[in-house]
Amino acid sequence: MEPKGIIESNWNEIVDSFDDMNLSESVLCGINAYGFEKPSAIQQRVILPRIKSYDVIAQAQSGTRKTATFAILILQQIKLDLKATEALVLAPGQDLAQQIQKVVMALGDYMGASCHACIGGTNVCTEDHHLPSR
Predict the structure, then answer these.
(1) pLDDT at 130 over 70
(2) Quick one: average pLDDT of 60-89?
(3) 18-111: which CATH topology?
(4) Hey, how many other C-beta atoms are within 10 angstroms of the C-beta on 93?
């Protein structure tokens, strides 16, 4: 693992504005409503390459908006006219799963996106009604 604070990348373009990232209007509205004015360092380096369909592996310290970064990318790619599950995010714990759900719901509010955290140890029948029927 690299020392803290060092960013290693083969992508040279850093984008310092959400408006310059080719994001949809509804995703931009969600970003603005969430209170983000400028992208964080991880967002400046990850969002545009992923939008351009490059594979991305990124790691950053806590508090760098990693959750919002992948939530933005998921919301950018989903097709709301499909009534099916389009993204699955696995989290190692209940607290993180619920945090991810809150971020996706907040950022996706202007899109009408839905999100549900399926937490282990809960009743499967209760969880089932949140998922699209097959």
Answers:
(1) no
(2) 93
(3) Rossmann fold (3.40.50)
(4) 10
Which two three-digit tokens encode residue 107?
């950022």
Backbone angles phi, psi at 64, to 5 degrees: -105, 10
User: For 99, which DSSP code?
Assistant: H
* Whole-angstrom Cα Rg for the chain: 16
Across the range 60-64, mean pLDDT stands at 92
pLDDT digits (tens, 9 = 90+) for 5-42: 665 667 778 999 999 999 999 999 999 999 999 999 99
Tokens 């919002």 correspond to: 68
User: Rounded distance, CA 116 to CA 114, Å?
Assistant: 7
Cβ 68 vs Cβ 83: under 8 Å: no
Where do the structural domains in the chain lie, given as residue ranges? 18-111
Q: What is the C-alpha separation between 14 and 85, in angstroms, rounded?
A: 32
Task: State the angle between helix axes of 25-34 and 66-77 in degrees (0 to 180), rounded to the nearest 10.
Answer: 150
